[in-house]
Design goal:
Helix content is 42%, strand content 20%. The chain has 357 residues and is of the alpha/beta class.
Length: 357
């Protein structure tokens, strides 16, 4: 009975001992896990190195310096009709006495045209008696010469340059020309300033490879451009004080006008535009020294830029002049050549000769 009792008590004691051993073991295991150091961070993959660029000596570098120059050419036959289908071999170009090779001939039908029309509304022109006819002729000219890809801008010449219509289609520009009012009282004329403003406008707004043309309907007289006005006033004040004689002041004014024309000529050349002038004064231009001086200045600008200067005699002749300008512009050929010996911003004389045409 005693042994039975002992056996009954031994079972629970053994179970208790096992539980105590289990908890002690778990406590020891938990303590051991807490005492372990943290696991090391995962390794960061190394970036793939960028291959070094090849050294210069691995390649043969060839450097060539040359200037691409565009030379405008218009070819007509004995009847004044344009000659089409010309190729590079049909031309011979001489620049400053040197034969040059033409690298490309442009197709006038494929190169867009941007025109700036300058309309003189000062009293010196608008009182000639056919101002409205000039407007209609100019509007007809734009519709005749411009294709859908071409554009025209319109400036008025008064006491300052005024852009009355930015580059737009022929219809838009022609409609704007017809709305320009004639002067009813004497108006100062800033001819030089307006031409220079038009040249600058084409540089800024016309694409580089577009053909550019400035067409001026004016007698060319100028009494209000900045280079003329400021110096004229200064010379007048000096003459009033006895500092400059009237003869000396006049000679100085002539020299200033000559320099103004050269500045205008340079601005038009830098814009790669051809300059055309149409003087509505008619044959009376040659009877006046001032009028002839102004006409000669326009002829100088035209000759230096590949354009022409016209003095139509009456309404019918004005229509003929516009037709000639339109035909010449439609047949405009942009020949391109490279001149390795001409520095940038330098001008050279070139002569284009057609072979067997």
């Amino acid at each position: 009975m005693t042994s039975e009792r002992v056996g009954k008590h031994f079972g629970p004691a053994l179970l208790l001992a096992g539980l105590v051993f289990f908890f002690c073991s778990w406590s020891t295991m938990a303590q051991t896990i807490r005492d372990l150091p943290p696991p090391p961070p995962a390794p960061t993959p190394k970036p793939t190195p960028t291959p070094a660029p090849p050294k210069d000596e691995d390649f043969e570098v060839i450097r060539v310096s040359s200037n691409l120059v565009m030379v405008p050419v218009s070819v007509v036959d004995a009847n004044g009709e344009p000659v089409r289908g010309l190729q590079v071999n049909d031309f011979h170009l001489v620049e400053e006495g040197r034969d040059q090779q033409i690298t490309e001939i442009g197709n006038p039908d494929e190169v867009p045209l941007d025109i700036a029309v300058l309309f003189d509304i000062s009293s010196s022109v608008s009182q000639k008696g056919f101002f409205s006819f000039q407007q209609r002729a100019a509007a007809s000219f734009l519709k005749q010469v411009l294709k859908p890809v071409d554009r025209a801008a319109v400036f008025t010449i008064t006491d300052q340059p005024t852009l009355v219509s930015p580059l737009a289609s022929a219809e838009t520009a022609a409609a704007k020309i017809l709305t320009i009012p004639a002067a009813t009282s004497p108006v100062p004329t800033a001819f030089y300033d307006t031409v220079m403003a038009a040249a600058k406008y084409l540089v800024e707004k016309s694409a580089e490879r577009h053909r550019r043309v400035i067409v001026v309907i004016s007698d060319g007289d100028d009494n209000f451009s900045s280079i003329v006005k400021d110096l004229t006033l200064a010379e007048y004040r000096a003459s009033q004080k006895g500092g400059v004689t009237s003869a000396a002041a006049y000679q100085n004014l002539l020299e200033r006008r000559r320099r103004a024309v050269l500045e205008v000529q340079k601005a038009v050349q830098q814009s790669d535009a051809a300059f055309y002038s149409i003087n509505p004064g008619g044959s009376s231009v040659r009877l006046n020294q001032i009028s002839m001086r102004a006409q000669n200045a326009m002829e100088s600008i035209a000759q230096s830029t590949g354009g022409s200067a016209y003095v139509p005699d009456g309404e019918q002749d004005l229509e003929r002049v516009f037709s000639e300008v339109a035909a010449e512009r439609r047949n405009f050929v942009a020949s391109q050549l490279r001149l390795p010996h001409v520095p940038n911003c330098a001008y050279a004389r070139a002569r284009v000769i057609t072979r067997n045409k």
